[in-house]
Amino acid sequence: MVLATTTSPRQGTSRGLRRLLEVPDGAYRGALGVLAALFALLLIAFVTSLVIQSRSAFAHFGLSFLTGTKWDAVHTHFGALTFIVGTLETTLIAMFIAIPIGLGCALALAFATPRRLRVPLGTAVELLAAVPSVVYGLWGLLVLAPWMRIYVEPGLAHITGGRFPFGGAQIGTGLLLAGVVLSIMVLPTLVAISRDVLMAVPGTEIEGAFALGATRWQVMRKVVVPSARTGVVGATTLATGRALGETIAVTMVIGNSPAFAHSLFSTSATMASVIANEFTEATEPYHLASLIAVGVLLLVVSVLVNLAARLAVRSVSRERAIGVGIL
Amino acid sequence: MSTGTAASNLVVRRGTWLSVVVAAALAIGLTACSSSPSSSTTTKPPTSTTAPSDPYAQADLHAPGGSLTGAGSTFDQPFFTKAFYIYNQQNSGVTVNYASIGSGGGIQQFQAQTVNFGASDVPMSPVDISKATGGQVLQVPVALGGEAMSYNLPGVKTGLKLTGPVIADIELGKVTAWNAPEIKDLNPGVNLPSNPIEAVHRSDGSGTTYIFTNYLATVSPAWASGPGTGKSVSWPVGVGEKGNEGVAGFIKSTPYSFGYVELAYAIQNQFTYAKVKNAAGDYVSPSLSSVAADAAQKPDITAVDFSIVDQAGAASYPISGYSWALVYELQKNQALGTTLVHVLDWLTHAGQAQAQSLDYVPLPTNIQQLARSTLLQVTGPDGTTQLLTTS
Question: Which of A74, A172, A173 has the CB atom closest to B228's CB atom?
């Protein structure tokens, strides 16, 4: 009864839909415009305030803020290079562990799991994303760190003979542990998106490949993964972004010493961890400005990594388009 | 149409009924909740349970009541939470909301006058004070803490003997093994392992680090000219962990580790810790009384000359320091200002019993007197009326 008053019947939904899409009324267009602008404005305001508050650090230290390796609040000497390197290293280790596991898990969930197990297993992976990062940090520090110190690190050193990058003191906390914890934290993102993308691969293509006599493995490798490649790269980008910016869990397990690591077992520090550590008690103006400047650098690094991933996606999809053309 | 409207009215009415019932149930639930004691600072118990024997029960007469806000040091937070809850039970008109956002944030909010008082582990510097918008700043010592040099050495009991210079050399990376001659010579007969020392420090900026580095700079010229004194310093060696709980967790789970931990954490975690040689040449264990003995040696502390590390006296434990409350000398609101000075006066006197129950070191008597004489300088908006009345 109530519905009847909104549209005259039998006018056809297609016309109503077209009106909705093509000629939005002023209020509709205005509301959407405001929402879109609000988001853009928020981002601009956010970046602007960061830049303004960090200006004095960039002005005072100049290029040495990017290339310097000494971070000393007592003598007001700030260089962020060790944090930039530490962030990239932990992210690299995390993705090195997470990508094969995540892809394998997504393939298994999409194609090799009995239907009855698919939903509970998928839910379990997604639940990992709901665990607060401080819990990962605590677990890393109290459970994984002793485990790394007693079993994993001596084991790796034994197998490799202590050669680079498996030398040095074995204390549990450090780059490797941070990478392991991060990899577990990014897995849900990686698995959930990859699984959805893999499951969206047209069934006809898969059936066709099977009909041509391809084995299960050949179908996965030659049909499913290539046609889902763009989506998988996208999932990896999102996961990388999470690894770059993760703060509390990394702070708790990385050992927080701003120096270049000479081993996977070395302690290190990341851009996010130094901000988390020092922001609350930073009272000296240059100290505060330098921490905000590190935040700006983190933003820049994240944007660069994102851009690189976009370029990768573009080249991958072009390659594929060419491949299809040749075929 | 009309039946439809009637039906929807019925639905609405039923909905209203439902919401009334739910609201009533919620209200009953909430009342039940609020009548049970809670640890929150803001909780207002329904009845005032003023003990007649309490000399500060009369604070009611002077303190007109009101709601105060404070912000700052995380070190003070457990003490403040408990003390302000007790104060509220004795003076039901007064609530204090304390946000433990860190000393830096506390100083900033105090400078901007968004809180009635600030709390900082290190007094405001003259530069900090010059940015305060509310005029002359007074700084009152409110809590005293010591730091235990804790270690996890399988087979070695508590009470390993260490001197300041040796501790500094460990932190500088000059003494790296537990059986180094520097440590061995101080501890004849103790079976020290040859394992490397896993030094651990606070990675977050903290007053605890300030007190420890202040001590190292006092006893070691190499530390003073090197890393120096600060809330976050550039550590030559060692692992950084966030917070007292992070350092405590690392020491607990890592054999051969060594680091400074807030005394309360060391006591509550039953850590093994070192006896440290004091200025008089005696090896002293950290305890509430040995830290208080150290602090009592210097009754004339000021916000500029506030360091109490390495004091004289045979019973003094040398690694200790105060936490400070920050108030404006001229209070713009007579009533709130009066409440504030009475709360702080209570905190530095009777309230210290709450500090002791949480393993903070109670302020020595001479420092309590200093706190009171400082609070007596606080005036109302006219600039002359003294707000604190001591009975």
Answer: A74
